[in-house]
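Lecture notes, part 5. Sequence design as translation. It can be helpful to think of inverse folding as translation between two languages: the language of shapes and the language of residues. The source text, in structure tokens, appears below.
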């Protein structure tokens, strides 16, 4: 459970207590209690089995893969995946790879519907770039129509592990992942993925690297 859920629930519980003390109609007392229960559920943070095979890139969030396309960047061709998180998805974000954080860049912006392609350009967002050794993997936390706050808990220089919790987007939102050109895609549009446990792509490894596959729960 993300602690924000407790804050919302305690506040709404206090509202319900005041309404009950004032002898307000039952429906008015029950409403904040229902909302408190929703926030406790929304801010859930379940453990996930983190894949451990070398070269695997996992999803930074739960949701629906809505786009998978090649784009051109200053560093060459990259494969971009867009994942839409609706209000019913887990909104805790996880690192797609192990490595060192080299960029954390927050950009204020609008709150367009995250399903719209232009949201990646105009919406409030945080870009995180992770140096995985032989390649970089980037992901963006993008605010949506309902999302009004992005939480990013990492900073430049931090060491992160694949599947590690790195932040949160409150309510409906979107995450984009920028993959190296050599990545072998393992998902397609229309698929649902789970943060930290669904493998989005694999980077081919050398024969000298370990091939263990035991998953770690985190």
């Amino acid at each position: 459970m993300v602690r924000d859920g407790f804050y919302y629930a305690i506040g709404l519980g206090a509202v319900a207590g005041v309404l009950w003390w004032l002898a307000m109609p039952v429906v008015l007392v029950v409403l904040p209690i229902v909302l408190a229960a929703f926030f406790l559920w929304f801010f859930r943070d379940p453990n996930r089995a983190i894949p451990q095979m070398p070269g695997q890139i996992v999803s930074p969030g739960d949701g629906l893969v809505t786009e998978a396309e090649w784009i051109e960047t200053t560093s060459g061709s990259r494969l971009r995946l867009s994942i839409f998180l609706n209000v019913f998805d887990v909104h805790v974000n996880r690192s797609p790879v192990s490595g060192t954080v080299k960029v954390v860049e927050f950009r204020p912006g609008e709150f367009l519907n995250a399903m719209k392609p232009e949201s990646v350009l105009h919406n409030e967002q945080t870009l995180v770039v992770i140096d995985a050794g032989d390649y970089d993997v980037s992901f963006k936390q993008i605010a949506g129509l309902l999302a009004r706050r992005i939480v990013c808990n990492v900073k430049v220089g931090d060491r992160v592990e694949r599947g590690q919790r790195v932040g949160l987007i409150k309510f409906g939102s979107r995450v984009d992942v920028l993959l190296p050109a050599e990545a072998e895609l393992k998902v397609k549009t229309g698929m649902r993925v789970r943060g930290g446990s669904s493998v989005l792509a694999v980077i081919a490894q050398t024969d000298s690297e370990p091939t263990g596959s035991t998953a770690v729960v985190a």
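The translated text above is only one of many valid answers, since several sequences can fold into similar shapes. The chain has a mean pLDDT of 86.
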